[in-house]
Amino acid sequence: MNTWPLLLGAWFFFEMVTRFRLSRRLLAELFRMFVLLELAAERLVRLVKRPRFVLTGQCHHRGVCCQQIVGDPPRFVKRQRWLLELFCRYHLVAHRFRVVGRGPEDELIFSCEHLTAEGQCGIYRFRPYLCRNYPLVPFYEAPKVLPGCGFVPIPRVVLRMKPRLGLNVLNPYLSVHHPSPGVAGESLFEHYQLIDDSCPKAR
After folding, report:
1. Are strands 69-71 and 176-177 parallel, antiparallel or unpaired?
2. Alpha carbon 201 to chain centroid distance?
3. Cβ density class 45-81: b for 16+ within 10 Å, e for less
4. What does the pLDDT look like over 7-48, one tens digit per residue?
5. For the chain, where are the alpha helices, taking DSSP H only?
6. Could you tell me which residues are beta bridge partners of residue 154?
7. CB contact at 8 A, 164 and 186
8. Which residue has the higher pLDDT, 166 or 52?
9. Hey, is 191 helix, strand or coil?
10. What residues does 69 pair with on adjacent strands?
11. Can you give the residue ranges of every domain in the chain?
């Protein structure tokens, strides 16, 4: 006797009762695998072509970036109302990103509905590529981070320098490097001071 119809029927009944929980979990795992492969491919590219800036610091887990997600579709999408609505609906269905505003260059500002009341991600294991790759580090420009973000962009050249407190603050928004005369055996540009929101602004 062929048992496959019975097994398929039992599986379908189980899925109906559980509202297709197992199928949704399998699809989420498959999606996660592709996201991780995409991230791995991007890291391989960045081993060959290094960006000019790197990120230091760590996430503060405040959930601010989850409430100010920038989505900037192509210009022809912005001009066609139905394409723009389709773009918004896709992000709502695929990621539960809901539009909450528009940016200065007419980009869309989304807020993620998976954010919990404690400021934590409700789907951290299955978070999309956009969230895993934040803050995005361009190849030639400094990464754009939100105010108060725990990540701080610094020029890659600063990685070879040595931190030293007490240097004059030249720019309160970047890691600052400047000549350090009087140190035997070291060049003039081997020291830097990392500036963050807790430091006083430059006068």
Report:
1. unpaired
2. 27
3. eeeeeebebbbeeeeeeebebbeebebebeeeebeee
4. 777 777 776 777 777 787 888 888 889 989 999 999 899 889
5. 4-17, 21-48, 75-79, 81-95, 129-132
6. 54
7. no
8. 52
9. strand
10. 110
11. 1-49, 52-134
Q: What are the tokens at 186?
A: 């070291």
Peptide bond into 135 cis (omega under 30): yes
Tell me the per-residue pLDDT of 111-126, one tens digit each, with 9 for 90 and over. Answer: 999 999 888 899 998 8
Q: Which residue has the tokens 């070879």?
A: 160
Q: Which residues contact 51 (CB under 8 A, 6 or more apart)?
A: 137, 138, 139, 140, 156
The DSSP bridge pattern shows strands 108-112 and 191-193 to be: unpaired
Residue whose tokens read 């601010």 = 64
Helix (H, G, I), strand (E, B) or coil at 109: strand
Residue with tokens 């989304």: 110
> Looking at per-residue confidence, does 97 or 186 come out higher?
97
Q: Contact at 8 Å (CB) between 143 and 137?
A: yes
Q: Is 31 helix (H, G, I), strand (E, B) or coil?
A: helix
